[in-house]
Amino acid sequence: SGDFDGVRAVVTGGASGIGLATARMLSRRGARVVCLDLNDQVEAPLSGVRADVSDDGSVRAAVAAAVEHLGGLDVLVNNAGIGAQGTVEDNEDAEWHRVFDVNVVGMVRVARAALPHLRSSPAAAIVNTCSIAATAGLPQRALYSATKGAVLALTRAMAADHLAEGIRVCCVNPGTAHTPWIDRLLSKADDPDAELAALAARQPTGRLVTADEVAAAICYLAGPHAGATTGTDLAVDGGMSGL
Ligand code: NAD
After folding, report:
1. Catalytic residue of the set 107, 144, 181, 218
2. Could you tell me if residue 241 is inside a domain?
3. Of 105, 141, 186, 194, which sits with the fewest C-beta atoms within 10 Å of its C-beta?
4. How close is the Cα of 164 to the center of ligand 1, in Å?
5. CATH classification at residue 97
6. How high is the mean pLDDT in each 10-residue block of the chain (243 residues)?
7. Complex ipTM tops 0.85
8. 47, part of any domain
9. What CA–CA distance (Å, rounded) separates 180 from 17?
10. pTM of the full predicted structure?
């Protein structure tokens, strides 16, 4: 228990990585948490509801089930996302639509279903998981970066639209965070350990960001100490964007 006592939270992509770390942290600090994910298997005391953020019917049903279970909604962590590699020449339209549908429209769908409930909360907040890719100009990440640039713009626009309703909207920009996502990428390398060491060496801090460090930033932005903070993005990137 703690600073999230009584808070009712939904975390998308909450079955793995940053989302799971955030769900656990919110729960430890007193919140009741429902994870919306393709994978609905989560440990107690978290609850899991299956949802595909690329399917509006699935999102509506899952948010309704989560709100029913929680008795309302105070915090939405819009975190589900997928990767994409390559330059603009490497992916055809169908792949652009598929990744935008999850990373951008997915967040829109969940927010649209959640907003009517957030309006009834005394301390409503949405935190979107963006990325340093939104502004960094990373090579071989044109599609992924474009989706995260859209998430950054969406965050600021939603903050303006919902300010008067008392709903804060912020995002976190993780650098390379050591989650199952990164492990999946590393497992494709000839020497995963050497690849991980090389990745760490490219970070200003010499190590990857942890999922817990991103979760702590999400909890800050979602929580009672961030009442004066909306429309802002918080980098958790080992100094990558600031140095
Ligand atoms: P992860 O793959 O470990 O977890 C992502 C979760 O999202 C999984 O549980 C997956 O089942 C779920 N998911 C994927 N597609 C979904 C869909 N259509 N509907 C519902 N759930 C879906 O990844 P992670 O590293 O924890 O990434 C979480 C977020 O953080 C993503 O938005 C990602 O873009 C962002 N991010 C990650 C990093 C990093 O280095 N790991 C860096 C910057 C931003």
Report:
1. 144
2. no
3. 194
4. 30
5. 3.40.50.720
6. 94 98 98 98 97 98 98 98 98 98 99 98 98 96 98 98 98 97 94 95 96 98 97 97 86
7. yes
8. yes
9. 6
10. 0.98
